[in-house]
Design a protein that fits this description.
The chain is mainly beta. The chain contains one helix and eight strands; from the N terminus they run E-E-E-E-E-H-E-E-E.
Amino acid sequence: MQLEILTPEALIYRGIIDYIQMPGLDGYFGILENHAPLISALGPGEITIDQATEANATVEKLADQSIAKKAQDKRFTMNVKGGIAEVVNNRIIVLVD
């Protein structure tokens, strides 16, 4: 799946992933390949990302160097204050604060 995480200021992450877990308003939820289309508000919490094992997950030039360092691992997390996530056709776009 293709994942993009953006803030109003910058692209935070772009890469190929196997799984993502996000903090919904009523609890955490996960997304795997071929998930049904979804739009969800996000609450404060931690996003967990499992990068793809087969594909070379390409991490774009990141605004936050601490995230760039974490993104070198297969699984990493980042804290968010809230946002919105959209899932369509194995593409996930997450807009966060």
